[in-house]
Amino acid sequence: METYTVTGFENDGTLVLNEMFEASDDQSAKQQGLDLLRAAGHEHKGARIVRRGQLIYFERCKLPGKLKGTAS
Q1: I need a labelling partner for 69 at 20 to 30 A (CA). Which of 21, 24, 57, 61 fits?
Q2: SS3 per residue for 13-58
């Protein structure tokens, strides 16, 4: 079993979820992490799931007022 961390955050970078959990593989960890986000009511916010510093899953925040394809 590996230890994973799921982190959810608001558009301004505020953490709304930061929990560690164990899973047998990356695919199971992704599902468990998404389930934790959903259960906490944060499924439509930015999130990441990592294992020992390796990114397993990443969802960007939806930044209001930003246009796709622009650097600003």
Answers
A1: 57
A2: CCEEEEEEEEECCHHHHHHHHHHHHHHCCCCCCEEEEEECCEEEEE
| The pair of three-digit structure tokens given for residue 59, joined into one six-digit string | 């969802």
* CA dist., res. 17 & res. 49, Å (int): 11
* Residue among 68, 67, 6, 64 at smallest CA distance from 31: 6
6: phi then psi, degrees, rounded to nearest 5: -110, 130
DSSP 69: T
pTM of the model: 0.80
pLDDT at 29 over 50: yes
